[in-house]
Write a structure and sequence with these properties.
15-stranded antiparallel beta sheet; alpha+beta; 10 helices; single chain
């Protein structure tokens, strides 16, 4: 099942985020000048570190100044101050390493990126990055050029907001209208290596230049957003499957095998809370979009049918409630739709293809399923959730065809149950 993971539900993630007090046959059309850069594709991922021990905890994005005025991104920055400097969007992702038995946190690695309207705004905005480390007494010389205005900070002891930490190094720099902050934090008494941090920063700086000149945007810039903030990241990037928090070896191997066998290049996952509900720990109505990029149209078509058929077969094998809509929507080049009921949710789900990209779009309502009510909830999924899922899928198709999806995609309130 596909559920948005709350930062507050994962203890280690809360620790990392809360202590940031400041914060091919077919291709999508050529990048438009007004299309947003895929910040999630620029961040540091486990495969960048050269260390098999890192796992991805979570990623968060924001695409309005109001949503970005959040401690995860900029700490005490206000909507007004972010608007003044022309903030366009921001993204933050956290990685972590644990002890061999998984009982204790040993190291974290966090990346924050922000895009501004212009270079001047980025120059002003840079002061909000790693500001909790930006003590002149802790600043060290950067060994060689990394973007513009690079600053490196090294704190040998714990941070006031994170007394369990035993050493922190951070580096912030600017490339054009983008600002990047990277921080490595240790919990074992082993000082983080500045050279390792600089190496990661150079990799990100080079990736920014590559992204800005790319003919097509990354999947993160192609996914629709009905809400100004989302939990999203790449679980598979550059043909490398990313290890995720709380995922065991068998689960990781299954994902890696599936993506590798299909020849999938990138997978981007976005979870958005459409209706928050009364329980802060659980979203009432969730939109989940997974976008898969394959080398060709034919390979994407084959994956759509293989993935959707395998999903239905597994549901039927275990006797789980599943059905197809009475009149399945026709969306994109081809699509397959299902209605599903779980013990704690029901959903409408569609696999949709546009060229060499497959998007799996889910509208899900989270609530307990009373015994014997499965058939009723299958009908509810069709009546309450399918129209919204179809709307999101059609909007997603337009974004893929247009080569990008900047800003918010309007969602009519009539579609919300």
């Amino acid at each position: 099942m596909h559920r948005a993971r709350s930062l507050a539900l994962v203890a280690v993630l809360a620790l990392v985020w809360s202590s940031w007090p400041a914060a091919t046959a077919w291709a999508v059309p050529t990048r438009q000048s007004d299309m947003p850069i895929d910040l999630a594709a620029l961040a540091v991922y486990p495969s960048d570190t050269g260390d098999d021990g890192y796992v991805l905890i979570d990623g968060k994005s924001c695409i309005t100044a109001e949503a970005c005025a959040n401690p995860i991104f900029f700490g005490a920055a206000t909507e007004a101050s972010l608007t003044e400097v022309g903030l366009t969007q921001a993204y933050a992702v956290a990685l972590a390493k644990f002890s061999e038995d998984g009982s204790s946190l040993t190291r974290t690695l966090a990346t924050t990126l922000a895009e501004y309207d212009d270079r001047a705004g980025a120059e002003q905005g840079m002061a909000t990055f790693l500001s909790w480390l930006a003590d002149p007494a802790s600043e060290e010389e950067v060994s060689s050029k990394i973007g513009d205005e690079a600053q490196l900070f090294d704190i040998g002891g714990p941070l006031p907001a994170d007394p369990s930490s035993t050493g922190v190094v951070g580096l912030r720099f600017r490339v054009g209208s983008l600002v990047v902050g990277i921080e490595i934090r240790d919990y074992t008494g082993t000082a983080p290596n500045r050279a390792d941090l600089e190496k990661l920063a150079r990799k990100v700086a080079q990736r920014i230049k590559t992204e800005q000149s790319a003919a097509e945007p990354g999947l993160g810039a192609l996914v629709i957003h009905h809400r100004a903030t989302a939990t999203e990241f790449y679980p598979h990037r550059g043909s490398n499957t990313v290890r995720l928090l709380q995922e065991n070896a068998d689960q990781f191997d299954a994902r890696a095998t599936e993506f590798g066998a299909a020849g999938i290049e990138d997978v981007f996952l976005s979870n958005q809370a459409l209706v928050a509900g009364d329980d802060p720990q659980q979203t009432d109505i969730l939109l989940s979009i997974a976008a898969y990029r394959l080398p060709s149209n034919s390979e994407a078509s084959a994956y759509l049918y293989a993935a959707s058929t395998a999903f239905a077969a597994e549901r039927e094998r275990i006797g789980a409630p599943i059905d197809e809509p009475e009149e399945p929507p026709i969306v994109g080049d081809e699509s397959v739709w299902y209605l599903n009921v779980y013990t704690d949710a029901y959903q409408a789900m569609g696999y949709v293809r546009v060229g060499n990209v497959v998007a799996r779009v889910i509208w899900q309502r989270n609530q307990p399923t009373p015994a014997g009510e499965e058939a009723t909830l299958l009908r509810a999924a069709e009546q309450e959730l399918l129209p919204g899922a179809q709307y999101s899928a059609e909007a997603q198709v337009r974004c893929l065809e247009d080569g990008g999806c900047p800003g918010l995609t309007r969602l009519p309130s009539r579609l919300l149950p």
